[in-house]
Structure formats: structure tokens, C-alpha cells
Amino acid sequence: MKMNLLCLILLFLMLLSSVWAVMTRTLLKAAIGLALASAVLTVLMFLLGAPMAAVFELSVCAGLITVVFVSTISLTKPISEKAEEEREREHLKFSWILPLILLAIGLALKFVPFAFDFNLPPAALNNDFRSVLWNTRLLDILGQITIILAGVFGVIILFKEKKENER
Amino acid sequence: MSANIPAFFWQFVIFVILLFVTGVYCIMVTRNFIRVLIGLEILTKAVTLLIVLAGFATGHTALAQAYAVTLIVIEVVVIAVAAGIVIGVFRVNNSLDVTKLRNLKG
Fold first, then answer.
1. Confidence at residue B2, expressed as pLDDT on a 0 to 100 scale
2. I need a labelling partner for A35 at 20 to 30 A (CA). Which of A29, A41, A45, B56 fits?
3. Residue A13 sits at the chain B interface (C-beta within 8 Å)
4. Which of B8, B22, B49 to mutate: most A Cβ within 10 Å?
5. Whole-number Å distance between alpha carbons of A117 and A119
């Protein structure tokens, strides 16, 4: 019961920080809101019995991605901050609709009888994260390595082209 | 095997749906490139939570963690490359407005 209440509070916190990230006018605050949502998600993942994924989420999503966002924001600084804020204000003119939409959908879903009778697979015998990751899902590791290499080459090409253009 | 889902599972699912709606709203409403990425990030957070939740409900926590880690790695690479593209677009157009990306318009 206690865990249930704690999870509910954390879910509310995560939703609130995500909504704040969407509704706030300055991009830096949005990035901070996103990092906060990641941090709350980390605690939720830990409570749901996924500590390794939670550590990944904390270090990568709350840390690295926030750094990437902040550096992108600082590298794409507009000519005048006031003009940027003015433009954002114009674009987010209807952002107050979002809480109303969420409230409506949340209330509607409250009355939906979620009782799908689907068959659950039996609980795994081997529930060790390391052995599942390195033995059962070995192909995923290869995929991850490929994606990381693709990302690295992508970023190299993006910045290489820029240097040639500047010359 | 009959369904034996914990009662709080559906509360989590409602919040996952609400997070997903928030992300979709962010992507649809804004014209700022960085805000589109923020919306994408919120979408992936909702999916990560759903994967971990499904693992907890079915007892396959290790498998769910493996999937979550894979998703996080993909998310980071996508955001890193997209951030590079955003910087490139800003240097060319001097703007982050997605509606001004009309260089390839025929």
C-alpha cells in the first residue's frame, strides 16, 4: 500500500515535470524539467525492480542528454534573448490547453475498464540481468554497438561538412 | 496461464498514456527544433516506463531491463545526432523554426 502511494506520487511528479518542460518558455528550463523527469523515472524503475536500467537512465538520460541539450541550446543562442522569448510566447500561446487535455484524458481513462484478459507468460527461470543481456539478448548488444558507431560517424560527418563550408 | 496483473498496473498505464499525450502535444504544437527533441524524449520516457512496468508485472525483470538499456542507448544516439543536425540547421538558416526549413522545397 505504501509503495503504491509512493509510486502514485512519483508518477504525478514525473508527469508534472514533463508538462513543465513542455509549457515553460525558456529552453534551458525545459531541459532542466526533462532531467527532473528522468531522475523521477530512475526512482520508479528502482522501485519496479530494475536497478541496472535505473542506473543507466540516471547517468545517461538525466546526465548526458541534459548536457547535450544544454550545449545545443548554448550553441544555437538567438541574436537577442528577448526576441527569442517573445517568439516562444507567441508559439506557446495555447499551451494552457495541455493540462486540460491531460485532465480530460485522465478522467476518461479512469472510467475505462482496463481488464484485458491476456495470457501472461510464465515468470522467467533465469532472471539474472547480466546473463540475459550477454546470453539471451546478445544480438541486441551487437545492434547497440552498430547504432553507436552509426551515431559517431553521423556526428563526425555533420561537423566535417561544416568545417569545409567555413573554409 | 490466466491473467494475474497487479492492480496498480493500470494506474501506471494511465500515466504512461498521459506522458505519451504530453510528448505528442509538444511535437505537434511547437515550431522550435529543440522542443521537438524534448517531445521525442518525453515519448521515449513513457515507453521506457512501460517496458519496465511490463517486466515487473510478468516477472521478466531481467529481460525488461535488457530492453530498457537498449532503448536508452538508441535514445542517446538519436538525440546526439539530432542535436548535431539542429546545430547545422541553425548555422545555415540562423533560425530554429521548423517551418523555415524549405531549402529542399521543389
1. 42
2. B56
3. no
4. B22
5. 7
